Amino acid sequence: MPKHKFRIGDLVHINKVMPSTMSHFTCDKDAIVVEYSHNECQKGSDWEHSYSLFIKGGGSHSWYHDSNLKLIKHDQSALLEKWKNEIEKEKKQKSNLNWIFKNGSSVLKRAHGATISALAKCLGCFNLWGSHGEGFVYHQNAMSVLLIAKPFLEKADKAGWLAFAEEYKTARRNK
User: Fold this and answer.
1) pTM here?
2) How many CB atoms lie within 10 A of CB 161?
3) What does residue 55 show for φ and ψ, rounded to 5 degrees?
4) Which of 54, 39, 52, 53 is nearest to 2 (CA)?
5) Residue 1 pLDDT level (bands cut at 50, 70, 90)
6) Which residue among 27, 64, 69, 91 is the one 20 to 30 A from 160 at the CA level?
7) Final residue in a domain of this structure, among 78, 108, 129
8) Which of 52, 78, 104 is the last residue of a domain?
C-alpha cells in the first residue's frame, strides 16, 4: 500500500496557483481529504498521490495532487460534517420556491444548482444532466430553465410560474 502524504479527514489548503493542466480546478481554499487516489494500483504514477477533497462551501472535487496541497491540521472529521451541514442548509434554502421568487433578480445573476433543479422539477424535469451526466448537457438545460423562468423571476411571480409549469407539463403529456 502506498504511503500517503495526507490522511482521510486531514484539513488542507489548496495552493493559490495551480499548474496549467489544472487551471480549471478550485484553488486557494480550505478542504478536507475524503479519499485517496482513484487507482492505488498505479504505483509510480502521478495519480498515486492524488486526493478527492471536500472543499469548504463547494462540495466534493477530485483529483488533487499532493504537491498542490498544504496540511493545516489532522483529523478534522467533525469540521467536515459541519461543512456538509452548511451546504445542505444552503441547498434547502435555495431550492425553496418562496426564497427563489423573493430573490429573483439575484437568482438570474448567479443561480445556485439547487435553485435551477427546483425550477426544473416544477416543469417535470428531474435530471438536468442527461443520460450520461455530461456537464455540457447540464449547462444547456440549466440555461434553458432560467431563460423560461426569467419573466416570472423578474416579476417575483411564483403563482404565475406554477401555473405556467402545470400548463407546460400538461402540454407535454398530451403530445
Assistant:
1) 0.74
2) 23
3) -90, 135
4) 39
5) very low
6) 91
7) 78
8) 78
Cell digits of residue 164? 405556467
Count of domains in the chain? Answer: 2
Q: State percent of the chain over pLDDT 90.
A: 70
Which of 82, 30, 89, 95 is CA-nearest to residue 61? 30
One domain for residues 71 and 101: no
Q: Could you report the per-residue pLDDT of 27-84, keeping only the tens digit for each? A: 999 999 998 755 554 455 555 678 999 999 888 888 899 999 999 999 999 999 999 9
Q: What is the CATH number of the domain that holds 34?
A: 2.30.30.40
66, 49 contact by CB (below 8 A): yes
Instruction: State the DSSP string of 71-103.
Output: EEES--HHHHHHHHHHHHHHHHHHT-HHHHHHT
Q: What is the largest CA-CA distance in the chain?
A: 60
